Predict the 3D structure of the following.
Amino acid sequence: MPTFDQLKTEARLGALEGAMAAAVRDYKKEIIDDEAKEKAKQRAINEEEVDLLDDEDIEELQAQRLREMKAEAKRQSESRKQGHGQYLQVKEEDFLQEVTTSEAVVAHFFHPDFARCKIVDKHMNAVARKYPGAKFIKINGPEAPFMVTKLKVKMLPCIVMFKKGIAIDRIVGFDELGGVDDFPQVRLEKRLTEKGIITYKNDDLDSDEEEELRERRSLRGGALYQGSKYKRNNDDEDEDW
C-alpha cells in the first residue's frame, strides 16, 4: 500500500502532466489561430481592388517609359539617317565623313570580281541589321586608291574597324574567320565584339551555326566543303591586287 508521501508525489506528477498537456493544446491552438489570421490577411490583400489608373506613381512610371521610348525612337531615327542598320556602299570622297561621324564603323574594302568579297557582303549585310549600334559600309578598293594607300590595304577582302574615326584593327582574308568560304557568321560577330565594335548577341541562328561549325570540324579534307553553298575553289582565295 503506497504511503501518503508517495500518493502526494503521484498527484503532483499527474497535475504536472495535465498542465503540460494543456499548455501543448494552447500552443497548438495559438499556432492554428495565427495561421488562420495570416491566411485571412493575405486573402484580404489578394481580394483588395487596386486602381492602377488612379495611382500617381504609376502615372509617373508610364510618363518616364514614354519619354524613354521617344528618346530611343529619336536615337534610332538619327542612326538610320547616318546609315546604321543597313549595309551601304560609299565613294572614296565620302569615306572620311562616314567613318568619323559614328562611334563605331566597320568598312569592307572589296573588289567587285572577287568571290570572297561577295561572301563578306552576305555576312556584313546580316550583321548590319542585327547590330544597328554600329555602322557597316563597303568601298570599292580599285576606285579608292587614296584610302587604300592611306590604310595600307594590300589584300582583299579586308575589313577595317574604326572607333571615333581611328582605324583600330582589321580582318584580312578569311584566316581569322576559319579559313573557309562557308565560315559561320558568328565568327565575324565575335571578332568584332573583341574590339568593342559591337556587343555580341546570342540567338538561335548563332546556336545553329556553332553546331554546324562543330560538325564541319569533325570532317576531313575535301569533305569539309560538301553541301556548302560556297564550294572551295582555288580562284576564290584571298587576292593581292
Observations:
- Helices lie at 4-47, 56-81, 92-100, 115-130, 145-150, 185-194, 204-217.
